Amino acid sequence: MAKVNVGDTVPQGTFVHVPFTPELEEHSACGMPLKLSTDAWKGKKVLLFAVPGAFTPSCHANHAPPYLAQLPALKAKGIDTVAVVSANDPFVLSGWSRILGFKDQILALSDPDGKWSEQLGLTVDLSGAGIGLGKRTTRYAIVLDDLKIVYLGVEPDPTKVTVSGVDAVLAAL
């Protein structure tokens, strides 16, 4: 259950990501992970969409690709930064984002151990699935304006994409 609501300021958090470089396109390099703090989003309008796992069916086919396709519409609505958040490690997220063609257009942010998402009350325990997923970020979308939540869409069923999908976010902007 979400511990945050529209109008709240998000807690400070630190993510890890592998910035896109042309060398990564050839898949012969892994890149060096860097840390990114939520402090970097002060004064900006940021859209975060979270997935339980890279390369998982709904995340890979239904959730992430439409965000890339609708990036021009999101930018036209004033979004400065778009990022996908997951408890996956930064190397997996980097590889996944390259396969999806995000390049430097959508950041792929690792939320180590789901700590930031847990502060928001937005994690899900998928241990019962029996495929080694454990505790993950649940499926959600948040729009921040100067670190204040102006949109929050949390999926009641993390296998589905409705309120966290790009169409729902665009309709709310």
Report on the architecture of this protein.
By secondary structure, the chain is of the alpha/beta class. Helices cover 24% and strands 25% of the residues. The protein has five helices and nine strands, in the order βββααβαβαββββα. The chain has helices spanning 57-69, 71-76, 90-100, 115-119, 166-172; strands at residues 14-17, 34-37, 45-50, 81-86, 107-110, 123-125, 135-137, 140-145, 148-154. The strands form three sheets. The chain has a five-stranded mixed beta sheet. Strand 8 and strand 9 form a beta hairpin. The longest helix has 13 residues, at 57-69. It is globular, with a radius of gyration of 15 Å.
What class would the helix/strand composition place it in? alpha/beta
Number of strands: 9
Mean pLDDT: 87
| Tertiary shape | globular
Low-confidence stretches: none
Kindly state the percentage of residues in helix: 10-25%
- State the end-to-end distance: 24 Å
Mind telling me the C-alpha Rg?
15 Å
Tell me the strand order in the biggest sheet.
5-4-3-8-9
Helical element count?
5
Order of helices and strands: EEEHHEHEHEEEEH
Give descriptors for this structure.
173 residues; alpha/beta; 5-stranded mixed sheet; two-stranded antiparallel ribbon; 9 strands
Structural topology:
Layout lengths: L13 E4 L16 E4 L7 E6 L6 H13 L1 H6 L4 E6 L3 H11 L6 E4 L4 H5 L3 E3 L9 E3 L2 E6 L2 E7 L11 H7 L1
Parallel strand pairs: 3-4, 4-5
Antiparallel strand pairs: 1-2, 3-8, 6-7, 8-9
Task: Give the gist of this structure.
By secondary structure, this protein is α/β, with parallel strands linked by helices.
